[in-house]
Structure formats: C-alpha cells, structure tokens
Amino acid sequence: MLELYWSAPQIKARGHPSLLKTQIALMKKLWYTSNPSSPISLGMPLCYADRLRIRQPGDAKFALGPHQDGGSTERWEKEGYGYGGGGVYSAVFRGEWEAYDPFDASARMHAFTDLYGGLGACSMFRMWQGWLSMSKTGPGEGTLQVNPLLKEATAYALLRPFFRPMWKPEQFRDPSKHLDPLNWEFLAGDNITSDLPGAVPGHGQEFPEGMHPHLELDKTMVNIPEVKPGDYVVWHCDSELPARMFSASLTGTAIHAVDRTHKGESDSSVLYIPVCPTTKANAHYVVSQRKAFLKGIPAPDFPGGVGESGHTRRPDLDFIMTTCDPIGIQAMGFAKIEASDEETSGGREAIQLANKKLGWE
C-alpha cells in the first residue's frame, strides 16, 4: 500500500471520462433518495484522492481479513450512523431488518462514519469503495474476496452485540451445535454489555474468526472473477455489493477481504478510486483535499507529513486542467460544478451548496 495520492496515473484515472460515466451510472441506477428534496446529487461525483496497491507474488503480509469499511462503533452511535433522518439502520434496530434498504441515500448522507479520526478512515460519504485494476489477476492471486449476503450480514452484525453463546464450540461433542438458536442468550436489562464484537473506535468493522459464527466466513467468502487492466471493481460502502464495470456483471456481498497469500505469477496492482456523490459535507472535504493537492501533501483522512511535495515534476494544476475531463475537473474542485438537465431539485440544491463551499458562488 503506497502512500501516493497525486501521481500522474492516479490523476488521469480519476479524471477519465469513461470512469466518470461509470461512477455516475453506479450512483443513478442503483441508489435513490426516499426524500426527493434531499440535497444530494446522484448525477455528479466528487473526487476522493486515495492510495494505490502493488502486491507482489508470494506476498502474505497484505492479508486483510473479512471487514467492512466506513467506521465500526459509529454504526451503533446516534452521532454516527444514527444521525439525521431517523438513522441509517433504524429499521434493523426496530426489529424490521427486512425493511432496511442499503441503497437509500436520504439518511446515509447525514451519517458520520469517522467520529474518532482513524488514519485512512474515509470521512466523505462513499456510495461505493472501489479500485481500478492495473493488472490481470484471478482468484487466489492477491485479489478481492466477498461474501454473497447483503441485508442479512448487515443485520446480523448490527444485532450480534445483543446475543451471547451459553456454551463454546469446544464444549459440544458436535461443534455445529454451537450455532443452535437454543445456545444463544438474548441480552437485555441487567445482562446487556457495552461489547461490540469486532468494533474498535478509529478502525473499520472487523469479523475475526469465531466472533460472528453464524456467517461461517471460513466457508462463505468467495473470490471475484478474473479482472484485467481497466476493469473497475466497486463494493457498497456498507452492505458492500460489488460490481465490476467496463467488462463485467453485477454480483452481491456484505463483507470483503483479500487473498491471504498472492499465489499468482505477476503483481496484483490497483488504484483505489471510490464513488462519492455531491453533498455539502463532501464538498467541504474536497476544499481541504484541493489545498493538499496544491501543496503535494496527503489529504486530511490520511497520515500527514511532506508527502509528495518534494517530488520532481509533480503534477500541478495545469496538468489537471489539460489532461482531465471537464467533469473530472469539477469533481476535483477546480471548476464550478454544472448541473445537468436531468438533475433533481435536491441535486440542484446540493450542487449550489457545493459550489458555495468550494468558492465558486
């Protein structure tokens, strides 16, 4: 994982017209707002400058276990995912998990996913986390693993703190009996604890072995299909439904990881490029990110330091203006955002608020 944010290939990729069209399609065709007046534009992405990964054959160090991005304890906190619009997971917590809709942006746009300033924790609203492949990799070759559950895994993780096993697997002659509903006690009243399995402030939500046993992650994590240079792979910011765009189809998941060992014969390399809609809060972050680019230092979400400020021939503003698509220039905050004719009233308001925050109005 290289702490590079402003290299020429990264900037060209973020501002490429094909990538931007794909990002817009991923927002408009799969997300919606239950409140049409919500100030959010699904037709205009904003840029989030992330890092890149070059994983060599045989590597076993970059072995990310099953996890979810976008904070951890924040999912249960009123000031986190519970802020605004009744909360992202209100349906789950009122006992109607089937009604939870991971693609309704109305409440999610108000959520605070990084209450504790974790390094690398995204403080922008990402509808999709994603990467652009720079290499050809297949299953087992240091690439992405996903779990084919959507609502179920999210609801299970959220409700897991309210249950505890009465007997451990090793206490059963048949360890599978550990999963029997009769072995799980509902915690309420004096029995409730503050333990949130896999959640630590300032970090993502982890799913260590045995902590969420009913998901059976040792059996249910599967690799995504083969990817080639130019394939764009994305996964839902929370329920993490992945899609491979440009040359592939759509599948579903709830949790993701990477191969423990890269068993391929060539590098597994990607540019991390998420999909972020236009909101006032996202524009606020782009203001700081824009300043960071001009100085050649990491944006606020990432470790500080001098970054790339001393790199020779570092891309400058002129590089962005001459190599990126006009929408990409707007997404990076270096031009006034223009609303399309198809924009909703809430989208137009979001763009107006973003332009004001960015200093264009």
Account of the 3D structure:
- The protein is an alpha+beta fold and 361 residues long.
- The protein has 2 domains: 1-50 and 276-361, no CATH class; 53-121 and 134-272, B-lactam Antibiotic, Isopenicillin N Synthase, Chain (Jelly Rolls), CATH 2.60.120.
- Helices cover 24% and strands 14% of the residues.
- It has 10 helices and 14 strands.
- It has helices at 8-14, 17-30, 90-93, 105-108, 151-159, 217-220, 280-295, 317-323, 326-331, 345-358, and strands at 41-46, 52-55, 67-68, 128-133, 144-146, 163-165, 184-186, 205-206, 222-223, 232-236, 243-245, 256-258, 268-272, 276-278.
- The protein has a 5-stranded antiparallel sheet, covered by helices on one side.
- A hairpin with a 6-residue loop joins strand 10 (232-236) and strand 11 (243-245).
- Helix 7 (280-295) packs parallel to helix 10 (345-358).
- It starts with 7 loop residues before the first helix and ends with a helix.
- The model is unreliable at 244-254 (pLDDT under 50).
Give a short summary of the structure:
With 361 residues, the protein is of the alpha+beta class. The chain has helices spanning 8-14, 17-30, 90-93, 105-108, 151-159, 217-220, 280-295, 317-323, 326-331, 345-358; strands at residues 41-46, 52-55, 67-68, 128-133, 144-146, 163-165, 184-186, 205-206, 222-223, 232-236, 243-245, 256-258, 268-272, 276-278.
Cα-to-Cα separation, first versus last residue: 38 Å
The level of helicity is 10-25%
Number of domains: 2
Kindly report the name of the CATH homologous superfamily of the largest domain.
B-lactam Antibiotic, Isopenicillin N Synthase, Chain
* Main pleated-sheet profile: 5 strands, antiparallel
Instruction: Classify the beta-strand content into a percent band.
Output: 5-15%
CATH fold-level name of the largest domain: Jelly Rolls
Whole-number average pLDDT?
88
Low-pLDDT ranges = 244-254
The secondary structure category is alpha+beta
> What best-fitting shape do the alpha-carbon axes yield?
globular
The CATH architecture term of the largest domain is Sandwich
